[in-house]
Every structure is written in C-alpha cells, then in structure tokens.
Design goal:
This is Aromatic ring-hydroxylating dioxygenase subunit alpha. The chain is α+β, with helices and mostly antiparallel strands. It contains six helices and 18 strands. The chain is globular, with a radius of gyration of 22 Å.
C-alpha cells in the first residue's frame, strides 16, 4: 500500500479528503499533456508517471522505481515498459519488473513491485483509477449523459487553481454566487437575488435547487457518484447564444497538492447535425471568451480565500447544499478508513 502524501492535519479523515478519496476515477490532465516522452504529474497525494507506447496507448505507474526510488518518468520508453534512468531497471505497465540489467535473475525480476494504475482517455482528458493496491479490473467509468450522449457536444476547459479542491466543489454547490459574483454575465444577469432552496435525492447523489425559480439563472447544482464524483449544472442561454437550449457544465476537481487543484469543466450543449457545427463555431469565436471571464471571477475569489476560511464560517440557509456535500464526503472518508483498518487486521 502506498502512503498518502499529505496530512499536516492530525485528523485522518481530513487528511484523506485533502488528498482525495481512494478507489475512484479522477481526471488528472488533458490528453494533450502526454506526447512522445514520459510525463510526471503530482496528483491525489502521489507522483505518477504517464507514457504512450508505439500505438499511442496510455500507461501509468507510480513515478518511483522499486529498486531505489528514482523517477521512472525520466527513463526510456520500451513499449509497455519504462527503463529507469538510474540503473536500467525495466518496469512493465502492470507494475512487474521484467529486467534488472545489473543483476540478472535477482529476486526483483518478475516481482510486481511497482504500483500501476488503470487509465482511460475520454472527452479530451486522462482519467485514472486511484487505487492503493493492484486492481486487475477497475469498476466502469460512468459519466453524465452530457458527455456520453450522442446528441451532446462538449468542450473541455482545464485550469489549475491555487487552493483546496473542496473550495472548488463548494463554489459549484452554491448557485447563489452566480447572482452576485457573475451578475454581469450575459447568461447570469436575470432572476431574483433572493431564493429558497431544497435538496432532492437522486439515484446517484442529490440536487440542490431553488424552489421558486427554474430556467432563469444558475438555479440548481447536482452532485453524483458513479465510480467517479462529478457535479453538473445548467445555465439558460439567451437567443444570441445559438442553438441547443440551456448551456450545461459537468465538473470534476482533482487535488494536485495541499493547496493546488486541477479543475475540469466540460461545457456542453445538446445539439446535433448542422446545429452542432453552428454551435461549436459560435462557441469558439464568440462565447468561449465570455465563459473564461466568468471562470476567472471564480478563480480570483477562491485563490484570495485563506486556507482555513472554511473553519471560520457563519453559514445560512443558502449553504445547505454545501453542508450536505461536506457531510457526504466525510462519511465516505470514514468508511474508507474503516475498511483500510479492517483489511490490516485481517492481514
């Protein structure tokens, strides 16, 4: 088992939440990050080596040679293997050491001594299954219909923000901030500045929504768990926004470190045929800049917040969704820690 590399907090639940829950799929980078050479990324309390073989298939190992801990990402690609630059030890994509040039036949050869990860490329991003041990077959990566449906089109927006990934999730689980922070936006200038909210359970999570206003502004947020945690929302577009009805956003937020987050927003519209082409052209040439402006407003606000801001809050009714999300995540962290402790006892 690989140690979680975070934890200034004494509370193990907080430490796990800061690093990211285990045994889930996470997006870790855009596909374009991995080209001809191996890449090293810090994500989820780990250092991960990514590379492509001659066919372009993506592989991932912990960026730690099982011999002496040198970075495999600085080595040579040998198809589905990496050769460590320090002593030439070759590690296959499943974590098995296939060759030790300096000591042929030693015990390290043939052992599954490196931690491997399952990876998939979908919708312009690399997804990694964040397991603590070797998993032969991970659970399926299930994404919302806005990304998987044939009638939907999307663009990936990727940014890295200075701050805890939970602040990003809190921001998305807060529809009211759109009324104030983004009030000059062409898509969030309408609607009431006061609202009542309710929580509605779903098969995969819950929806936090305004009770008296629908289809006007940023009026609801959904959190879902389908072997990956995601959030989604919809923002009505004016007629000048082109075809496709409301503009939908699917988001995932992956911790890079204690104070850095990889933020993934897929901007989606339900369009097909020539309407799809029209919307994609309009988005690239007119609408995208406006959405980046809105995202920049969020970044500036979140990066200016103190790391302990969520320890000194005075919450009110509009924050019930945030409270529900935080409780949900803490419960999942407790369950993972209990399962880990039980596994140790059994071993």
């Amino acid at each position: 088992m690989i140690p979680i590399q975070i934890a200034k907090a004494a509370d193990p639940v907080e430490a796990l939440l800061e690093a990211g829950l285990r045994n889930l799929w996470y997006p870790i980078c855009p596909s374009s990050f991995v080209q001809e050479q191996p890449v090293s990324l810090r994500r989820l309390g780990r250092k991960i080596a990514l590379w492509r073989d001659a066919r372009g298939t993506l592989h991932a190992l912990e960026d730690h040679c099982p011999h002496r801990g040198a970075p495999l990402s600085q080595g040579v690609i040998l198809g589905d293997r990496l050769a460590c630059p320090y002593h030439g030890v070759q590690v296959r994509c499943d974590g098995v050491v296939t060759k030790v040039p300096g000591s042929p036949g030693c015990k390290l050869e043939g052992s599954r001594a490196a931690l491997s990860f399952h990876v998939q490329e979908r919708h312009g991003a690399v997804f990694l299954f964040n397991s603590d041990t070797h998993v032969d077959t991970p659970p399926p990566l299930l994404l919302p219909e806005e990304l998987e449906g044939a009638e939907w089109s999307n663009f990936l927006c990727y940014v890295e923000w200075k701050g805890d990934h939970r602040y990003v999730a809190d921001n998305v689980m807060d529809p009211m901030h759109g009324t104030f922070l983004h009030k000059q936006s062409h898509s969030m200038a309408e609607g009431e500045s006061e609202a009542q909210f309710q929580i509605r359970a779903t098969d995969t999570g819950f929806v936090f929504e305004k009770t008296g206003q629908k289809g006007v502004n940023f009026d609801w947020t959904e959190w879902g768990s389908t072997n990956i945690h995601w959030m989604r929302l919809a923002i009505p577009y004016p007629k000048t926004g082109g075809p496709g009805g409301s503009f939908s956003i699917v988001g995932c937020y992956t911790p890079i470190g204690p104070n850095m987050t990889a933020v993934f927003f897929w901007r989606c519209r339900k369009v097909s045929g020539w309407l799809r082409d029209t919307w994609r052209f309009l988005y690239r040439n007119r609408l995208e800049a406006r959405h980046w402006h809105v995202l920049e407003q969020d970044r500036v606000m979140l990066e200016a917040m103190e790391p302990d801001a969520n320890q000194r809050e005075h919450l009110y009714a509009h924050d019930v969704g945030i409270v529900r999300l935080r409780r949900q995540m803490k419960q999942l962290a407790k369950e993972q820690l209990e399962a880990q402790a039980a596994a140790k006892v059994a071993a």
